[in-house]
Amino acid sequence: MILENAPAAVTWLVLVTAALCAGFAKTAVGGIGLFTVVLAATVMPAAESTAAVLLLLIIADACAVARYHQHADWKLIRQVVPAVLPGLLVGTALLAVLPDSLLRRIIGGILLAMAALQLLPRTPRPSRGTAVATGLAAGACTMMANAAGPVMSLYLLARGLDKRRFLGTSAWFFAGVNLCKVPFAAGLGLFDGEMLVRTLILAPAVLLGAFLGVKLVDRLKQSVFQRVVLGATAVSALALILL
Q1: How many angstroms from the chain centroid is the CA of residue 215?
Q2: Does the structure show a pLDDT above 90 at 113?
Q3: pTM of the model
């Protein structure tokens, strides 16, 4: 990890930035949520950073649900959710046989390909089979590299949702997924008192990021919002491949 032995001030600066990204991603540009994962992993051991990021994301999920809960498209959520658990199992199996660095690069390559498809002329809206495939991919990617955000962002873009339906649907989906991951992390002993205190200290940064995200989205036109999400997803995919 690049900054694992950095001074405490640098570590806290990185963590505050990660917390800001978590809040901002949930209420504005979902594609940048992966930067929270990348930043935390530079200053914390892998398992600890995964658990710490999960707690930050749950706070950010609560902010997004509070703001956009009435805009969720529950039909889309019901189509995707049943395949998430099998996706988690697939991700677990792949983790057992492939190195983490290779998995990240595979996911990044898939995301780049999916992002490129968004630039092609629009085809009919994705079928139910595509929703199932998205659920599988989201479950697998969140288990392997906490990268389900870009997967869902690309799927929701393909469905042509307006920005508030996009954010409301994403908010409820990830609130459920992240809460489901808590017992697994707790069972592995990844939560302790020090981590909970650190999360409380970072919570205001998450809230600030969420507030800034809301303000930005209110000013973005729909076409600009779509391009920003697509661009952020592509950058996240590159980060997976290169880092």
Answers
A1: 20
A2: no
A3: 0.83
